[in-house]
Structure formats: structure tokens, C-alpha cells
Amino acid sequence: MLSYRHAFHAGNHADVLKHFVQIQLHEYMNQKDTAYTYIDTHSGAGVYALDGGYAAKNAEYETGIGPLWERSDMPKQLADYVSLVKGLNPSGKMRYYPGSPYCADKAMREQDRLRLFELHPADAKILADNFRKVAEHAAAQGERPTARGKRVLVERGDGFHALKTLLPPPSRRALVLIDPPYEDKQDYRKVREALEDALGRFPTGIFAIWYPVLQRMESRQFADKLKRLAAKEWLNVTLTVSTPGPDGFGLHSSGMFILNPPYTLEPTLRQVMPYLVQVLGKDAGATFVIESGTQLTGSSTSRVGANGSARVPVGNARRASPTSGTGSLRLPGQAPAGTPGAAGAIGPRAPASTSSPRRTSGRPTGPSKPGSRRP
């Protein structure tokens, strides 16, 4: 929908999760010398002013980058993200927040390529103007590109359609970020269909999908539907900063779903997510969840054990908790814990594509921050 303007939400807790994860993915991609392509299907304006205009109206940055601005105890990976944001604010005052195109531009190397798409006419123009000014500033400083070809291309257009033309990339390395506004419930379907097509064209790419965690059915079912896509592996992380109100209004939780995630991402999230909950959490409902799984294909409905033998899940799958190290995860089709006959109960036959999930969730240990309503 062309009515959506991300400037109203710039720098909020969802942006913190999205851009922190995005930067970790760039860091992983940078480990190899071979160039890669970054594709942003819904780029926005690229940079947002926090001290006026849309962002100042709701001041949502106070739920995200604001509480992190003066912190000196952050995990290194999170501190690197905050340093990138501070690089856009040389005065030290928090005035501007970078969107995903700016984060990519700063995290990527000269030989890498950015392909940015935005449908909203005003945001597409601002995005193009921002990168034009960056190029003009670099030229005024005597900087000349050493790699052949245009490093950054900005296009007012449909990012979903662009995936069909850009994948697979020439270097056979790509990171794709997909984060539509989801104001139209059809966005959930469009994301899933775009990924199905993209994985068929380029099954080894890294695909990062941001999504809101809402009470509407499309949102509740979204992550589970993405787990069924034909990717080798997946990782899902959500951050909740407060308990949703009874009216369901407002964004209290969001997620990043990664197809073909790097092996470095999950350990990093296990370090950083408890800290984000501690600092950004507003009440006892603040929490995080990390899930990961390996995609299985074929007609078999069983799961494969470590020794290669087929097995079926029985009882409760265990999950780790940052607070107690205990807990349980009910598998699809299983009866809830305590239900007669629940132990070993197996539900309907699984679809042809299934996964074996690992799950971590909980709140951080340690004292609550001042003013927190957390017990």
C-alpha cells in the first residue's frame, strides 16, 4: 500500500532487531573475497530524521535506538550496530536513523553491489537523492570507485518482481532483505510466493524476512508457513517488548526469519537477545524466542535422527530457557502437556516438507532496570 511511510516508525524496537540482524548477515558475507549482491525489496527513504517530521510525531525511536544510545555495557555485536547509527550523527546527538539501504552501504565493500527498490514515489525520490548526495560527496573528496559497474542502483518499482530479474546474481552470492509494510494482508502471501520463486532460481541465497507479530491470523501463521519453504535451513527470532493490549493496537513484537542462515548468527542472537529484552522491555511480557531447523524434503513424514535412521517425535520436545534451562515445546499435532495420553501422542501426518526445530525463549536473568514493571 502506497499510504505507508516508514518514517513514522524509524528507530523503534522492530528496526533495532531488523538492522542488527541485517548487519550480522553482512559481516558474514564479507568474510569471503568474492563480491555479492544485496537486494532490498522495500527500501524506504534510506535515512530518517528523528527530531522532526513523521518520526517525531510518535517518537517510536524511544522504544528502540533511544534506550541504547548512551549504554556502555552492550555486547560487542550490538555495540557495532549502535556505532553505525552514531556514525550518521557526528554531533553525538541522536538526530538521524539509518534505514536498511544505509546500513547495507556502510557494512558492504566497494566490490559489492546494492540493488534497491521502493514503490512509494516520495520515498523512492528521497532514496535516490540520498545516494546521489553520497556519491557527490565522495567525488568531492577525491574518491574514485575501483570496481567496474555501478555499485548502487535505485529503482522505483516492485521489489518482488525484481527478484525474478536479479536472481541468480552473476557472482552466485546474494543477501536479500524483504520487509513490506504488511498493512495489506496480501503482503504475507506475496512474500511467501516471492520466496518460493526465488528459492527455485537461487536456492543458496540468504533471504532475510522481517515481519510484525500481530493478532491477525495471517501474522500468527506466517512463520510456520515460511518453515515449509524448500530451503536447507531456517532461523526465526522474535523480540517482544511489552504485553499486547486487549484491543491488539500497536506493535509490541516483531520477528526476523532467515532462510539459509549463517552458522554464526544463532550464537550471536543467544548473546544479544537477553540484553535487548532487559534494556527495551517495558513489562513482564517482554521476551524473545529463537527457533532454528533443518528442512527435510521428500515423501517421508518421519524425522531423521543423528545416525541417519528415521524416527518420529514423541513426547515433548525440550527447549532451553535463559532463566531456568527448562521448559517444553509442543510439536504440531501433539496434545498439550497434562492431557491424558499426551506423552507420545502424534498428530496428523506431516506435510512432505518438515523441519526439526530447536527453540530458545525467555527473559534475561539479573536485576530489572529502574522503572521496570517486571517482577
Automatic annotation (TrEMBL):
| Gene Ontology biological-process annotations | rRNA base methylation
User: Pfam family of this protein, just one?
Assistant: RsmJ
Which residues of this protein are annotated with the site description Interaction with substrate rRNA?
Y4
Where are the residues of the annotated region Disordered? 296-375
Q: Does the keyword RNA-binding apply?
A: yes
GO CC, alphabetical: cytosol
What is this enzyme's class at the first EC digit? transferase
Where composition is biased (Low complexity), the residues are: 332-368
Keyword vocabulary terms for this entry: Methyltransferase, RNA-binding, rRNA processing, S-adenosyl-L-methionine, Transferase
What's the EC number here?
2.1.1.266
Q: Which residues are listed for S-adenosyl-L-methionine binding in this entry?
A: H19, H42, S100, E118, D158, G159, D179
| Chain coiled-coil ranges | none
Give the matching Gene3D superfamilies.
Vaccinia Virus protein VP39
- Catalysis: reaction(s): adenosine(2030) in 23S rRNA + S-adenosyl-L-methionine = N(6)-methyladenosine(2030) in 23S rRNA + S-adenosyl-L-homocysteine + H(+)
Q: Which residues form the active site?
A: D179
**Assembly and binders:** Monomer.
The UniProt entry's sequence similarity note says: Belongs to the RlmJ family.
Cited PANTHER family: RIBOSOMAL RNA LARGE SUBUNIT METHYLTRANSFERASE J
Q: What does this protein do?
A: Specifically methylates the adenine in position 2030 of 23S rRNA.
Listed name of the protein: Ribosomal RNA large subunit methyltransferase J
Q: Mind giving the lineage of the organism this protein is from?
A: Bacteria, Pseudomonadati, Pseudomonadota, Betaproteobacteria, Burkholderiales
